[in-house]
Write a structure and sequence with these properties.
Length: 215
Protein backbone atom coordinates (compact mmCIF):
# COMPACT_ATOMS: atom_id res chain seq x y z
CA UNK A 1 0.00 0.00 0.00
CA UNK A 2 1.29 3.46 -0.93
CA UNK A 3 1.57 5.72 2.12
CA UNK A 4 -0.30 9.02 1.65
CA UNK A 5 1.26 12.19 3.10
CA UNK A 6 -0.97 15.28 2.78
CA UNK A 7 1.13 18.41 2.26
CA UNK A 8 -0.07 21.15 4.62
CA UNK A 9 1.19 23.78 2.20
CA UNK A 10 -2.28 23.31 0.63
CA UNK A 11 -4.10 23.51 3.97
CA UNK A 12 -5.69 26.73 5.28
CA UNK A 13 -2.87 28.55 7.13
CA UNK A 14 -5.43 30.08 9.48
CA UNK A 15 -6.89 26.64 10.30
CA UNK A 16 -3.91 24.29 10.29
CA UNK A 17 -5.10 22.30 13.35
CA UNK A 18 -8.54 21.78 11.80
CA UNK A 19 -7.05 20.64 8.49
CA UNK A 20 -4.46 18.31 10.07
CA UNK A 21 -7.16 16.66 12.21
CA UNK A 22 -9.32 16.35 9.09
CA UNK A 23 -6.46 14.58 7.25
CA UNK A 24 -5.85 12.31 10.25
CA UNK A 25 -9.55 11.36 10.40
CA UNK A 26 -9.34 10.65 6.65
CA UNK A 27 -6.75 7.93 7.41
CA UNK A 28 -3.69 9.58 5.89
CA UNK A 29 -0.38 7.96 6.89
CA UNK A 30 2.03 10.88 7.38
CA UNK A 31 1.80 14.69 7.49
CA UNK A 32 4.14 16.45 5.03
CA UNK A 33 5.53 19.81 6.20
CA UNK A 34 7.31 22.05 3.66
CA UNK A 35 9.96 24.37 5.07
CA UNK A 36 11.15 27.08 2.66
CA UNK A 37 13.87 29.72 3.27
CA UNK A 38 13.25 32.08 0.28
CA UNK A 39 16.79 31.25 -0.93
CA UNK A 40 16.84 27.61 -1.99
CA UNK A 41 13.34 28.21 -3.36
CA UNK A 42 11.54 31.55 -4.12
CA UNK A 43 9.03 31.11 -1.29
CA UNK A 44 8.80 31.12 2.52
CA UNK A 45 6.99 28.48 4.59
CA UNK A 46 6.78 27.03 8.08
CA UNK A 47 9.19 27.07 11.00
CA UNK A 48 10.31 24.66 13.75
CA UNK A 49 7.63 26.22 16.00
CA UNK A 50 4.92 25.02 13.62
CA UNK A 51 6.41 21.51 13.73
CA UNK A 52 6.43 21.68 17.55
CA UNK A 53 2.75 22.64 17.64
CA UNK A 54 1.84 19.92 15.13
CA UNK A 55 3.66 17.39 17.33
CA UNK A 56 1.30 18.38 20.16
CA UNK A 57 -1.88 17.75 18.14
CA UNK A 58 -1.10 14.55 16.20
CA UNK A 59 0.82 11.29 16.66
CA UNK A 60 1.15 10.84 12.91
CA UNK A 61 4.72 10.84 11.54
CA UNK A 62 5.78 14.41 10.63
CA UNK A 63 7.58 14.27 7.29
CA UNK A 64 9.56 17.53 7.22
CA UNK A 65 10.93 18.65 3.83
CA UNK A 66 13.71 21.24 4.23
CA UNK A 67 13.98 23.39 1.09
CA UNK A 68 16.83 25.38 2.61
CA UNK A 69 20.30 26.40 1.42
CA UNK A 70 21.70 25.89 4.97
CA UNK A 71 19.65 23.24 6.83
CA UNK A 72 22.64 22.65 9.12
CA UNK A 73 21.78 25.90 10.91
CA UNK A 74 18.38 24.62 12.06
CA UNK A 75 18.67 20.82 11.96
CA UNK A 76 18.53 20.34 15.74
CA UNK A 77 15.63 22.76 16.10
CA UNK A 78 13.47 20.64 13.76
CA UNK A 79 14.59 17.45 15.50
CA UNK A 80 13.88 18.95 18.96
CA UNK A 81 10.46 20.07 17.64
CA UNK A 82 9.54 16.46 16.86
CA UNK A 83 10.18 15.83 13.14
CA UNK A 84 9.86 12.08 12.47
CA UNK A 85 11.59 12.26 9.10
CA UNK A 86 13.86 15.15 8.12
CA UNK A 87 14.70 15.54 4.43
CA UNK A 88 17.46 17.73 3.01
CA UNK A 89 18.22 18.44 -0.63
CA UNK A 90 21.20 16.86 -2.43
CA UNK A 91 21.84 20.15 -4.30
CA UNK A 92 23.01 22.10 -1.22
CA UNK A 93 26.67 22.98 -0.51
CA UNK A 94 26.74 21.65 3.06
CA UNK A 95 28.16 18.19 4.01
CA UNK A 96 25.08 16.08 3.18
CA UNK A 97 26.57 12.81 4.50
CA UNK A 98 27.31 14.39 7.87
CA UNK A 99 23.81 15.88 8.09
CA UNK A 100 22.08 12.59 7.25
CA UNK A 101 24.16 10.86 9.93
CA UNK A 102 23.24 13.54 12.49
CA UNK A 103 19.51 13.00 11.75
CA UNK A 104 19.88 9.23 12.17
CA UNK A 105 21.92 9.63 15.36
CA UNK A 106 18.84 11.39 16.80
CA UNK A 107 16.79 8.27 15.98
CA UNK A 108 14.83 9.83 13.11
CA UNK A 109 14.42 8.94 9.44
CA UNK A 110 16.97 10.74 7.27
CA UNK A 111 15.76 11.78 3.82
CA UNK A 112 17.51 13.04 0.69
CA UNK A 113 15.60 15.03 -1.94
CA UNK A 114 16.36 15.57 -5.63
CA UNK A 115 15.01 18.35 -7.85
CA UNK A 116 13.51 17.10 -11.18
CA UNK A 117 16.66 18.09 -13.10
CA UNK A 118 19.10 16.34 -10.75
CA UNK A 119 20.06 12.86 -12.01
CA UNK A 120 19.16 9.83 -9.86
CA UNK A 121 22.85 8.93 -9.59
CA UNK A 122 23.28 11.95 -7.31
CA UNK A 123 22.07 9.80 -4.42
CA UNK A 124 24.45 6.87 -5.02
CA UNK A 125 26.85 8.00 -2.27
CA UNK A 126 23.93 8.21 0.19
CA UNK A 127 22.25 4.88 -0.67
CA UNK A 128 23.10 3.34 2.72
CA UNK A 129 22.53 6.36 4.95
CA UNK A 130 19.28 7.75 3.46
CA UNK A 131 16.18 6.02 4.85
CA UNK A 132 14.08 7.89 2.29
CA UNK A 133 14.62 9.42 -1.14
CA UNK A 134 12.27 12.22 -2.14
CA UNK A 135 11.96 12.64 -5.88
CA UNK A 136 10.53 16.08 -6.61
CA UNK A 137 7.97 15.75 -9.39
CA UNK A 138 7.76 19.56 -9.70
CA UNK A 139 10.31 22.36 -9.35
CA UNK A 140 10.26 22.92 -5.57
CA UNK A 141 8.71 26.08 -4.12
CA UNK A 142 4.97 26.02 -4.85
CA UNK A 143 1.94 23.72 -4.70
CA UNK A 144 -0.60 23.30 -7.50
CA UNK A 145 1.93 22.67 -10.28
CA UNK A 146 1.72 20.00 -13.02
CA UNK A 147 3.60 16.73 -12.44
CA UNK A 148 6.85 16.43 -14.44
CA UNK A 149 6.54 12.97 -16.08
CA UNK A 150 10.32 12.80 -16.72
CA UNK A 151 10.71 11.91 -13.02
CA UNK A 152 8.92 8.56 -13.41
CA UNK A 153 11.98 7.04 -15.12
CA UNK A 154 14.16 8.45 -12.30
CA UNK A 155 12.03 6.55 -9.75
CA UNK A 156 12.40 3.39 -11.85
CA UNK A 157 16.16 3.98 -12.02
CA UNK A 158 16.39 4.31 -8.25
CA UNK A 159 14.63 0.98 -7.87
CA UNK A 160 16.96 -0.56 -10.46
CA UNK A 161 19.99 0.75 -8.54
CA UNK A 162 18.81 -1.47 -5.68
CA UNK A 163 17.77 1.31 -3.30
CA UNK A 164 16.08 -0.25 -0.24
CA UNK A 165 14.65 2.84 1.48
CA UNK A 166 11.31 4.61 1.09
CA UNK A 167 10.80 6.18 -2.34
CA UNK A 168 8.68 9.33 -2.03
CA UNK A 169 7.41 11.68 -4.74
CA UNK A 170 6.19 15.22 -4.22
CA UNK A 171 4.39 17.66 -6.49
CA UNK A 172 1.43 17.46 -8.88
CA UNK A 173 0.34 14.00 -7.71
CA UNK A 174 -3.33 13.23 -8.26
CA UNK A 175 -5.54 10.14 -8.24
CA UNK A 176 -5.18 9.78 -12.04
CA UNK A 177 -1.37 9.79 -12.13
CA UNK A 178 -0.48 7.89 -8.92
CA UNK A 179 -0.72 4.43 -10.53
CA UNK A 180 2.15 5.20 -12.95
CA UNK A 181 4.36 6.21 -10.02
CA UNK A 182 3.28 3.17 -7.99
CA UNK A 183 4.12 0.60 -10.67
CA UNK A 184 7.61 2.14 -10.96
CA UNK A 185 8.45 1.75 -7.28
CA UNK A 186 6.90 4.61 -5.33
CA UNK A 187 6.14 3.88 -1.63
CA UNK A 188 5.07 7.33 -0.34
CA UNK A 189 2.97 9.97 -2.17
CA UNK A 190 2.92 13.61 -1.02
CA UNK A 191 -0.31 15.29 -2.09
CA UNK A 192 -1.39 18.87 -1.40
CA UNK A 193 -3.94 20.45 -3.72
CA UNK A 194 -5.54 17.18 -4.86
CA UNK A 195 -6.32 16.17 -1.26
CA UNK A 196 -7.20 19.37 0.55
CA UNK A 197 -9.53 20.42 -2.28
CA UNK A 198 -11.41 17.10 -2.18
CA UNK A 199 -14.57 17.39 -0.07
CA UNK A 200 -14.50 13.61 0.48
CA UNK A 201 -10.86 13.32 1.59
CA UNK A 202 -11.56 10.03 3.40
CA UNK A 203 -13.07 8.43 0.28
CA UNK A 204 -10.20 9.75 -1.83
CA UNK A 205 -7.52 8.34 0.50
CA UNK A 206 -9.33 4.98 0.63
CA UNK A 207 -9.17 4.80 -3.19
CA UNK A 208 -5.52 5.94 -3.22
CA UNK A 209 -4.62 3.17 -0.77
CA UNK A 210 -5.96 0.67 -3.30
CA UNK A 211 -3.71 1.96 -6.09
CA UNK A 212 -0.72 -0.26 -6.78
CA UNK A 213 -2.22 -3.13 -4.76
CA UNK A 214 -3.89 -4.70 -7.83
CA UNK A 215 -7.31 -4.54 -6.07
C1 LIG B 1 6.46 21.97 -3.35
C2 LIG B 1 6.25 21.16 -2.10
C3 LIG B 1 5.12 20.17 -2.19
C4 LIG B 1 3.76 20.77 -2.53
C5 LIG B 1 2.86 19.70 -3.12
O1 LIG B 1 7.73 22.52 -3.35
O2 LIG B 1 7.45 20.47 -1.75
O3 LIG B 1 5.05 19.42 -0.99
O4 LIG B 1 3.19 21.32 -1.40
O5 LIG B 1 1.64 20.25 -3.47
P1 LIG B 1 0.79 19.75 -4.73
O6 LIG B 1 0.35 18.34 -4.42
O7 LIG B 1 -0.35 20.73 -4.75
O8 LIG B 1 1.66 19.82 -5.92
ZN1 LIG C 1 7.34 18.98 -0.08
Amino acid sequence: MIKIAPSILAADPLNLERDVIRAEKADCDWIHVDVMDAHFVPNLAYSADVVRRLRQITELPLDVHLMMDHPEIMLDQFLDAGASCLTIHAEIEADVTQLLKRIRQRGRMAGIALKPGTPTEAICEYMDIADLTLMMTVEPGFGGQKLDARVISKIRRLKDLGYKGEIEADGGIREDNLELLAVNGLTVAVMGTALFRDEDMKGCIARLHQIGTGK
